[in-house]
Amino acid sequence: MKRLLTLSAALAMTAGLALAEGAHVMSSGTVTKIDTKWNKITIDHGPLENLDMPAMKMVFDVANPAMLDGLSEGAAISFVADRVNGKLTVTELTK
Hints:
- The chain is of the alpha+beta class and 95 residues long.
- Helix content is 20%, strand content 41%.
- It contains 1 helix and 5 strands; from the N terminus they run H-E-E-E-E-E.
- Residues 4-20 have low confidence and may be disordered.
């Protein structure tokens, strides 16, 4: 019984840490423009729940320029965007 309580407490703490660290649900969108010079991407996206934003087309910075490698306009993507140093930034991206 003690082992079960310890395991339950550890799982609850792990879930709490994931939420505290800003674990966000991925959003979907379509790439409409890629700017490798300025490390920016324009995405026509669905709602961004973590930023309380409706669906729209907008420009984002990318956290890592390598995210743009192999990406093309018209590509369907899943991504996480967040505010980084006051700028809307794509922090995770899957093609």
